[in-house]
Amino acid sequence: MKTKSKSPVRMMVDTDIPRLVALDNHFCPNCPLTEKHFRNCIRLYSAWTPLVIVSGGELRSFCLFQHDKRDLILFRLISNPAASWHDSFAVYLDRMKGIGSWRRIIVDIPERELDTQVFFRRLGMVCTRIERGAYDDDVDDIQDAYVFEYRRSTEG
Hints:
The protein is of the alpha+beta class. The chain folds into two domains: about 10-100, Aminopeptidase; about 105-150, no CATH class. The chain has helices at about 15-25, 35-45, 85-95, 115-120; strands spanning about 10, 50-55, 60-70, 70-80, 105-110, 125-135, 145-150. Strands 1-2-3-4-5-7-6 form a seven-stranded mixed β-sheet, with helices on both faces. Strand 2 (about 50-55) and strand 3 (about 60-70) form a beta hairpin.
């Protein structure tokens, strides 16, 4: 008999918010999310899928997917230094495969992040288009974004 192992992924809850804000502020000091942002993501479940990975009582990472019709767009993925974001996203993707009615997960990746592009390709995601000038925070460093998609299998 096959037993299902307990997934470390769960939905965010209000008690996670202080740790989420601290983690996000550490890794995204130029555009941090606030407590209000996280509360809205938790409450607006028709617009967001807010997930966390907790292991041994410690928050390992969080992931925010924004809903756009039947697509999920990766809005933010942050992992603490003890957890690889590569491993975290693979766990999130595996968890998302079995829930909801989405048809695609969409991720945009800066053109210079080749290792990230290769990683998403290994997960079965396909680059479907290039968005010119998507990252233009610095006039001297305008980058294109490679848009990767994971399509849910329609086979049943």
